[in-house]
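ESCALATION

Customer reports they have been waiting on this structure for their group meeting. Please prioritize. Original submission:
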Amino acid sequence: MLVKFLFLLFPFLFCEMNERANENSPEERIVGGDIVPITSAPFVVSVRLSDRHKCGGSIGSNRTIITAAHCTDGLEASSLSVMVGSSDINSTEQIIPVEKFIQHSHFDRDNYENDVSILRLKSQLTFDSEVQSIKLSSVNFPPGTEAQIYGWGIVKEGDITFSPYLKGGTVKIVDRFSCQKAYETKNMRLTREMMCAGIEEGGVDTCPGDSGGPLVVNNSLVGITSFGFGCGDPKFPGVYVNAKVLSNFIRPTIIRLQAD
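Update from on-call: job pushed to the front of the queue and completed.
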């Protein structure tokens, strides 16, 4: 299974991509969409490993970041940092080291169940028009609801370079049953805390490098980018962590890390 941070520009991660890339492997993956200013999505951040973009994330509070567990799994907090307040992936103006993180204790590395991790930053963020937190959604939206996706991931399948600027796209929430049927053909089981989003004709989707980033409806965090097959393949919508279902982990963990 190929999750959405693996097709990277950088050789040390490109090796991992090659190890995982096989016919029945999902990808963490925005193809399609447009470049957007950070003021359109001031809650979006770049999670970095050794100062290089690895995943996306969302600001949960002035001290915490919400991302995917597969973005932190097996890593030390000291190797991670977060870039905020810029659409430019190469910006170094606001980069904050990660002090520690709490990964969901039941994260399953085989099927990406409970794929969520909360980071605590070493210093507080100062909120302005380019840096803002995002609230968790309190509702599950029905299939067909439009949602926004954001990230610096690769812009076409098979590429290994990230978008230099933040991109955003519009997708629709997909019926979970039909999504499950599609992924069954790849021997993948969707669990209750997973949801799907895409567009019927394909072409707009999250891609490698977008993992951990937000799926947004009405300015609230509905999902966390997790995995998928291909980029923009109409047969396989992107799979996201359902933020409402896992809010019983996300909310108290943010509160705990904010207070530490």
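Sent to customer with the following note: Residues 5-29 have pLDDT under 50 and may be disordered.
Escalation resolved.
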